[in-house]
Specification:
This protein is α+β, with helices and mostly antiparallel strands. The chain folds into six domains: 88 residues, Ubiquitin-like (UB roll) (Roll), CATH 3.10.20; 78 residues, Ubiquitin-like (UB roll) (Roll), CATH 3.10.20.310; 86 residues, Roll (Ubiquitin-like (UB roll)); 76 residues, Ubiquitin-like (UB roll) (Roll), CATH 3.10.20; 73 residues, membrane protein fhac (Ubiquitin-like (UB roll)); 254 residues, Porin (Beta Barrel), CATH 2.40.160.50. The strands form nine sheets. Strands 19-20-21-22-23-24-25-27-28-29-30-34-35-36-37-39 form a 16-stranded antiparallel barrel. The chain has a four-stranded mixed sheet with strand order 1-5-6-3. A hairpin with a 3-residue loop joins strand 21 and strand 22. The protein starts with a strand and ends with a strand.
């Protein structure tokens, strides 16, 4: 029997010009040594077939092809009487991957990273791949600043040609940034420049932000922020010459040094508009944020070109191209810009398509769309449409695409693609406030019922002062013009005796309301309700305020201490809201004027309030909020205003530093305690500067800042009753407030110092609210 052996790939590469065996026709192929691998798999990679003529070159190619699969650690080709025998030794399979000492990462996260690197259970074990796996693990740790990490790998043979892999990890301590230096900066203090960096040296909150741990990606972002800082302040030729990152020998401290070249500061000498000016030049120039004589700012220049592009887009030029070309005069340190405008062709919208809404009806989305089919394309209306769809809160994501219509040059389709989210909510919670102590709350609500956009909720709240059970229903699309309709049914119990008041109320009622949009940012609301309120007062108690006794005498008779009265409150309000965010606004104005009157029923009165709130961005991270509120209430038809409809102030939400609802006229009972009465006139002013908490960077969930509050409540009661003490001067306070949008609900803290407290004022310097109540 003729038998030749080609042992391994290396031997095949050194076959001389003279053949190691005579070429022959292959009559059969046999595979020996396979355990897990199917024979068909070997044949699929083998470049030799039955009937082929086997030569030295083809044998070498076969060995290379099988080695390349990674399945085998040894491959031989043997020849037995024109039969090719492929003898293989399989690599062991990875049966399991374990970790010892793993703390920084989740095990599943690590296994996923290894799988992406080609190392996973059921794959063939390869020493080279094991080295790559170790490098991948180290890379993961380097992203967390753990440069001293040590990894020891143990390979344990198992039955059926399998192995178990164990990575023993000594994570070590995370290396922290010891120092950041900026060399070559002369125009600005290094401290000011480092404020734009996300990376920082360790501070008291670094355990949470991790901003003291080096990351190549973060450093790149910080260097780009530094570049923007200079370019936005006139340094047109600013350049980062080099960046060095070094680590201490013990791998615990990192030092970062950036060398910069500032160049000279440039002034904009002129701005020319060139190209096809389809709009009046005066209109285009008015939209620009940068003007001749200004210090050069890349941000303002980009905003100017974008503003021109937006102007053109709002007139139908959806694909306008606007670019600015500089002409630099280095001697005079001036730069001139020529803005080239190519409006392209004017287009109109052929179709508006809505996709992704598996539950929400098309008409619910289209109600919010302000771009019309068949009209010229208007970029402002498309953006407004997206904002309105997003504000419905029915979708987790809203994307807009403007696509040219194939075969035309003047038509586009606008596609709104939405990703729906769950709009039902069941919540239970426990809250605490200084005024109401422990509050239990819960709600069941369903927005976008059956995809119709309608809203319904059942709300429950219980506290020591206020208890509420309410059912609400709102149809925001009552008419095609955007008129909304809603219904409310409620039961409220108030027991403010813990605050020093000597009455209790129990109200039940319901009402209907309508909202009429008069512009994109303004709404008129009207409502009518019927309310039945039971009032309980001990008129025989000598400490009961006179106005409470008068109420009982007028509406309940002198022989009883409690009674029920009906009122029919009619409400009207105007709301204007241009705030850029509902949670953390940075600019905009919120105004609300409301009027409530009850001309029918047992109780006749009216209440009018007005609130004006403005937000000003002081810096990139600081926002100034100014808020003013006034209110007036009185009785109708000769009646006095029901005392439980009085206006109040003091505490969180009005004048901090004073106890809740403690401002205004008061009486002193037999124990020497003040009984706060409220009043018919209310005034509140707030000024608050908010900024991110130090160490939290751009995280908006935690903000703090100083504030100034002022306010007071007035009434004519002091003129009518000698036992009622006057309100006195407007109360003022200053302090520091913090807000945290925690996973448990919003937390608000404030520490206030009253500026002009009076003898009988109820002072409460530290105040907070936790949780959300309905």
């Amino acid at each position: 029997m003729k038998k030749n052996l080609l042992a391994g790939l290396v031997a095949s590469l050194f076959v001389s010009g003279a053949s190691a065996f005579e070429p022959f026709t292959v009559k059969d192929i046999r595979v020996d040594g396979i355990q897990r691998t199917e024979a068909g798999t070997v044949f699929s990679y083998l470049p030799i077939k039955v009937g082929d003529t086997l030569t030295d070159d083809k044998a070498a190619q076969a060995i290379k092809a099988l080695f390349a699969t990674g399945f085998f650690k040894d491959v031989r080709i043997e020849i037995e009487s024109d039969v090719v025998v492929v003898a293989v030794e399989e690599r062991p399979a990875i049966a399991q991957i374990d970790f010892t000492g793993l703390k920084e990462f989740d095990k599943d996260q690590m296994i996923k990273g290894l799988k992406e690197a080609g190392f996973a259970v059921s794959r063939s074990f390869d020493r080279s791949m094991l080295e790559k796996a170790e490098q991948e693990l180290k890379r993961q740790y380097l992203t967390r600043g753990k440069y001293s990490v040590s990894i020891t790998t143990t390979v344990t043979p198992l039955e059926r040609n399998r192995v178990g892999i164990n990575f023993k990890i000594d994570e070590g301590d995370a290396a922290t940034i010891k120092q950041i230096n900026i060399v070559g900066a002369n125009s600005f203090r290094e401290k000011e420049l480092l404020e734009v960096f996300q990376l920082q040296t360790p501070n008291w909150i670094s355990w949470y932000t991790k901003n003291d741990q080096y990351s190549k990606q973060k450093l790149s972002a910080d260097l780009e922020a530094l570049r923007s800082f200079y370019l936005n302040r006139g340094f047109l030729e600013f350049n980062i010459e080099s960046t060095q990152v070094s680590i201490s020998p013990d791998k615990k401290d990192i030092y970062i040094t950036a060398t910069v070249s500032e160049g000279e500061r440039y002034i904009v000498s002129s701005i020319k508009l060139a190209g096809e000016l389809t709009l009046p030049e005066e209109e285009l120039r008015a939209a620009m944020k940068i003007k001749p004589g200004d210090v050069f700012s890349r941000e303002n220049l980009n905003e100017s070109t974008k503003a021109i592009s937006d102007k053109l887009s709002s007139r139908g030029y959806a694909f306008a191209n606007v670019n600015a070309a500089p002409e630099i005069d280095k001697e005079k340190r001036r730069v001139a810009f020529t803005v080239f405008i190519d409006p392209g062709k004017r287009v109109y919208v052929r179709r508006i398509n809505v996709t992704g809404n598996t539950k929400t009806r098309d008409e619910v989305v289209r109600q919010e769309v302000r771009q019309m089919e068949g009209a010229w394309y208007d970029d402002e209306r498309v953006k407004l449409s997206r904002q309105r769809i997003d504000k419905t809160d029915y979708f987790s994501e809203v994307n807009v695409e403007t696509l040219p219509v194939v075969g035309t040059t003047d038509q586009v389709d606008v596609n709104f693609n939405v990703t729906e989210k769950s709009t039902g909510n069941i919540s239970l919670g426990v809250g605490y406030s200084d005024s109401e102590n422990v509050i239990l709350s819960g709600s069941i609500s369903q927005a976008n019922i059956f995809g119709s956009g309608k809203f319904a909720s059942l709300q429950l709240s219980t506290g020591s002062v206020n208890r509420t059970l309410g059912i609400s229903y709102t149809n925001p699309y009552f008419t095609v013009d955007g008129v909304s309709q809603g219904f409310d049914i409620y039961e409220r119990k108030t027991d403010p005796t813990s605050l020093g008041y000597v009455y209790k109320t129990h109200s039940t009622g319901g009402g209907i309301r309508f909202g009429f949009p008069i512009s994109e940012k303004q709404t008129l609301n009207f409502g009518a309700a019927i309310d039945y309120t039971k009032v309980e007062i001990d008129r025989t108690d000598t400490d009961t305020p006179l106005q409470y006794v008068d109420f009982i005498d007028e509406f309940c008779g002198t022989d009883t201490y409690k009674c029920g009265n009906t009122s029919v409150p009619l409400t009207a309000s105007w709301v204007s809201n241009t705030k850029d965010s509902a949670i953390n606004p940075t600019r905009g104005v919120y105004q609300k004027a409301s009027f409530e009157v009850s001309p029918l029923g047992d109780l006749n009165y009216y209440r009018a309030t007005y609130q004006h709130q403005r937000f000003y961005p002081v810096t990139r991270t600081m926002v100034l909020m100014l808020n003013g509120e006034v209110g007036y209430a009185n009785g109708l038809g000769g009646q006095e205003l029901p005392f439980f409809k009085n206006l109040y102030a003091g505490g969180v939400g009005s004048v901090r530093g004073y106890d809740t609802a403690s401002l205004g006229p008061y009486e002193i009972d037999s124990d020497g305690d003040e009984v706060r009465l409220g009043g018919t006139k209310r005034f509140v002013f707030n000024a608050e500067l908010t900024m991110p908490l130090p160490g939290f960077g751009a995280d908006k969930s935690m903000r703090f800042g100083p504030f100034f509050d002022a306010g007071q409540v007035y009434s004519d009661a002091a003129d009518k009753n000698s036992d009622v003490y006057d309100s006195g001067p407007v109360r003022m306070s200053v302090g520091l407030a913090a807000t945290w949008l925690s996973p448990f609900g919003p937390l608000k803290f404030s520490f206030a110092q009253p500026l002009n407290e009076q003898k009988n004022d109820n002072i409460q310097k530290f105040q907070f609210q936790m949780g959300t109540t309905f």
